[in-house]
Automatic annotation (TrEMBL), chains A, B:
Keywords associated with the record: Aminotransferase, DNA-binding, Transferase
Signal peptide start-end: none
PANTHER family: AMINOTRANSFERASE, PUTATIVE-RELATED, ASPARTATE AMINOTRANSFERASE
Species of provenance: Branchiibius hedensis
InterPro entries to which the protein is assigned, alphabetical: AspAT_Ic, PyrdxlP-dep_Trfase, PyrdxlP-dep_Trfase_major, PyrdxlP-dep_Trfase_small
Lineage top rank: taxon: Bacteria
Keyword Transferase: yes
Name the record gives this protein: DNA-binding transcriptional regulator, MocR family, contains an aminotransferase domain
One of the Pfam families matching this protein, by short name: Asp_aminotransf
Amino acid sequence: MAGPAVPSHSDIAPLPDDPAAFLATQRSAYDDLVAQGLKFDLTRGKPGPEQLDLSEALLTLPTTHTSGGVDVRNYGGLEGLLGLRELFAELLGVQVAQLVAQGNASLTLMKDVLVDCMLKGPVDGTPWKDQGPIKFLCPVPGYDRHHALLEWLGIEMVPVPMEADGPDVAVVEALVKDDPSIKGMWLVPTYANPSGSVTEADKAARLAAMPTAASDFKILWDNAYGLHHLTDVETKTADIISLAAANGNPDRPIMFASTSKITFAGAGVSFLAASERNVKWYLGHLGMGSIGPDKVNHLRHLEFFKDADGVRAHMRKHAALIKPKFDAVQEVLSTRLGRYPHIATWTEPIGGYFVSLDVLPGTASRVVQLAKEAGVALTPAGASFPYGVDPQDTNIRLAPTFPSLDEVRVAMEAVATCVLLAAAEKLAD
Amino acid sequence: MAGPAVPSHSDIAPLPDDPAAFLATQRSAYDDLVAQGLKFDLTRGKPGPEQLDLSEALLTLPTTHTSGGVDVRNYGGLEGLLGLRELFAELLGVQVAQLVAQGNASLTLMKDVLVDCMLKGPVDGTPWKDQGPIKFLCPVPGYDRHHALLEWLGIEMVPVPMEADGPDVAVVEALVKDDPSIKGMWLVPTYANPSGSVTEADKAARLAAMPTAASDFKILWDNAYGLHHLTDVETKTADIISLAAANGNPDRPIMFASTSKITFAGAGVSFLAASERNVKWYLGHLGMGSIGPDKVNHLRHLEFFKDADGVRAHMRKHAALIKPKFDAVQEVLSTRLGRYPHIATWTEPIGGYFVSLDVLPGTASRVVQLAKEAGVALTPAGASFPYGVDPQDTNIRLAPTFPSLDEVRVAMEAVATCVLLAAAEKLAD
């Protein structure tokens, strides 16, 4: 399915016979690049303005202030507006009673859950802060904000490999079965950040069922891109909540999602889905600092989408806008780097927000530095790894959605030039 | 200034000569009350629907998606929209750099601050979770959600008396000077919940300057009602941030405010104000779970109010709607209970959302129970005290804003009847 693409070109070039000449060629190309005086930013997975425009009608909604007999303007309704929860329960494949709708950022809900586990303990355990050093498994490459949150809480991160069909479950199983200090793992199941990997149902089932030494092991299932298809293939996310329940671990997974990359990145709605017991646990702690989420924004979204098909149709409009940008990334990388599979490989995602580029080991930092000096801001090398350290110094996350199509093309040409120069420097070393 | 009113009636009744006859009279009145089959809720400080209607124009704002060159729809701007911060900095009497605008609940910011202090330590201290048992001072009667948050975190609450002009500062000073485990205090400085007390500048100055054994002592200054005047007297809240800075304790106070009772209770904007060092500390932790607040809602509020005078004019419309309700409370209580100052006294606030009623000691729970059985839901007796325990069982918080004016009248008649019956039962005991 989705996942790292292996370039298959008939004209694969051998490693250069004459590294010095290769270096001179690449340096010359780079000098030309610097002379262009570019200024582009490919660092963050932000929707572009034309994507935000798709939801402009939200600005004059809702048309009423009541929904299901509730005055959405007033306090209350900690679990979120029923109508919106019903709509997204269908899209996320969960029961309405398993779903909570909240404010503008699922990242906030993830922080809440981890803080609650630390201070108060998960629904099936005691406070993690009282248990000495604890650990989390992090599929790599992964999402830098997931890692930052764990580091902030002093939770040790253990990297596990991310493969095209999900994390290396054999490694996960081996780690968790004997070590009670491993309390959980992150996972972006569909169109993972940054690899585009999709965790297949068989791997999800193993994660749901695997014996864990920690009786309160949690899978933080960040389904940020579950609806964000780039092609006609509308990948179905594995149903981790049902799988976990069926395997006697109903409280293991906690799912997160949001409309941040569906409507407005800064003014959307976030979701948490889990067992009813987990939901009750979560709301109990949430209620210490909330008298209910912004239900006006919930109703605004409900009126805008009307139903699940409304969301699906909306997502196809996003795909129409950003697929050409992803195509441009593939096109430029193939044209410029396809002949050098020993120097660069990259993913060809069918959804999500990123392309994951692996350059010659030991050169990713140098590529980012070269690009910066040429006016192209890339996500820092190592950003997708715990503690910001990519042991191979090989991975670079490309985020093509925010710049215009022309900018993506020019920026990717620049990236290719930097990748080749950094490799040439290394090979000539 | 504001604060508990002492009823001064020429016709003060002596304690009843014949408690049995008094009891029979009150029981008869109560039986008539129950026969009416009322159904009212005076429990929470919620704005009424006609107050929410004042802000209905928000539903079709903003008219644009940019402000100060920022696309408010996208990620970013962790500190909140500049224009809105400028507007509320003026109203709250702080510098723009000292002010952060966030989501729909200042209670969330209070929880954040306490969680950050526990897990990571305040800007001037080490994590509170590592310091053994710690304590907070709570002026009583106070806000039940403040107490719940401390109890949730396992922070011991020490009550201190709330007086008409603020907390009993002599008691506070004596407690904090020698006990390093007292890490802070709550304070609702203006039109306190539920007493309506206003902390005067001299008391604020003493709190800002007092020596504390804890070097990281915090005043959580919840200015929830600072703009919520009921009369033409627009009480100025003491400038705790400047006072603390002037006294060498710049990082002691953290101020909270919101538009929850200005625009929409469930869809407003919250604020945190503090020293720039505190703001930087706060944002550093906030950024672990947020890529910026809902700036669309910030712009919506900015467009709606336009400037600080817009907010002031708006607040006068609120006062026009709710002052008659507060007047009705005073009128009914005076008429029915004014002759019995040994049985009941109450505050006559000039702002805020509550009237604090003190009944015959030992009868508050009974009053609430009687009212409930007569169909009138009151805030549970003791709710305004740490751990829900009013040692005198005397205080009842009345919240007259949500019901209609007629309902307030009928409900207060019912309350008066219950107060008298509970007292009669006690006196006949």
